[in-house]
Amino acid sequence: MNGYKVQLDVFEGPLDLLLHLIKELEIDIYDIPMKTLTRQYMEYIDEMKELEINVASEYLVMASELLKIKSHMLLPEPPHMEEEYEDPRESLMEQLIEYQNYKQYAEQLAELKKENEKIYIKAPHAFEEKADDDAPLEVSLADLMAAYQKVRARVSVDRPRNITITRESVSREFAESFLRQCFSGKKTLGLRDIFTFSESKPKVVAVFLTLLDLVKDNQLAIHPRGRDDFEIERLYD
Known about the structure:
cell division, cell cycle, Segregation and condensation protein A
C-alpha cells in the first residue's frame, strides 16, 4: 500500500474518493488503469474496516463496480467484435468527468459566495412620492416675513461681536484746569455754558464734582438763573 492517508469524512461519496485517487496516482481520467485504481480503492475500504469505521453502502457498491469493470477488462476480446467493442470503463469515465465538472462549478460558486459576503448591499426601502414641482407655492407674505425675521435673528446671533470697553479717567487736576479755561476773562458763566453736552459722562461728573468743591472752598458761587439753569460766579481773581 502506498503512503497516502485518507479519511471518509473528507469525501462526499465514492466518486469523490476516486477523483482523489486519480489525482494522487496521476492517472489519466480518459485512460484509467483499472487494476491500479481498484487496488488502491479496495485498500482504502479495507483500511476503513480495520479501523472499525462504518463504510457507507455506496462505497461498497462502487467497489463491486470497479471489480466488475476490472474483470471485464481481463477477458480476451473477440477478434470479430473489435470494431464494436465498448470500453467497460466508459460509463465510469463519464461519471467521473461529470462529477468533476459539478465539483469545479460548486467550488466556483462557493468562491463567489465568499466574495459576495464581503460586499454589503443596502436593503431596499420605499421612497416617498416626489412633490409636483409645477404645483403652486402656497406661501403667504406673512410666512416670508416670518422666515426673513428668523434669518436676520440668526445672523445677528451668529455674527461675532467685538466690544471693547475702555474706562475714561478724568482727574481733579484736569477738571480744575478745564474750569479755569472756561472762566478765562469771564466773571460769570451759565452752567450750560460750561458743558456742551457732547462731553463724556466721566468728564461731566468730574467737572461737576470739582465745581461743587470749589463752591465749598468759596472759589466759586452759584446763583439761580432762569428755571433750569444756574449762574456760576468766579470769586477768585
